[in-house]
UniProtKB/TrEMBL annotation:
Pfam families: SulA (PF03846). Coiled coil: none annotated. It comes from the Bacteria. This is SOS cell division inhibitor SulA. SUPFAM superfamilies: P-loop containing nucleoside triphosphate hydrolases. GO terms for biological process: cell division; negative regulation of cell division; SOS response. Keywords: Cell cycle, Cell division.
Amino acid sequence: MQFPQSLNRTQLPLFDTFLASAAPPLFADSDEQFWQDDEGEAFSELSLRGAAGHCLNLLAPILRELSENNDERWLTLIAPPSSLTQIWLREAGLNRERILLLHPRGEQSALELARQALLLGRSHTVVSWLHPLKRQARKQLEQAAHQGKAQSLNISLG
């Protein structure tokens, strides 16, 4: 049996090839392009299943790109999981000077905090970890993102 590739070749890690491709960035550098398209959605959701460490490794390049965004506004993380620490942010190569980590206080919910952060418009992207997220909550985040000219990204860890 013959194989199309030599067995002596080293294999690239699974996502290095994807990330190194000439594909357009995950999020636009400028919100101007995003907001010109009335069809564009201001809400996105990413669902990750598996070991927490593996999920964070998959999430790292996305958060790194968002933290390097040319937009002057913040990347805001709402109620991230406890495994997402300042040490992890540094080791993942994120620009910690452009990131706000917010946790709800008192009777405020993470959903309400995310909605308020989006409405303020001081963040280019608000990342939340809300699971499960009902349709009405998605709609609230999407409307708040449109009003604040921001992007809402919800991460669902299973």
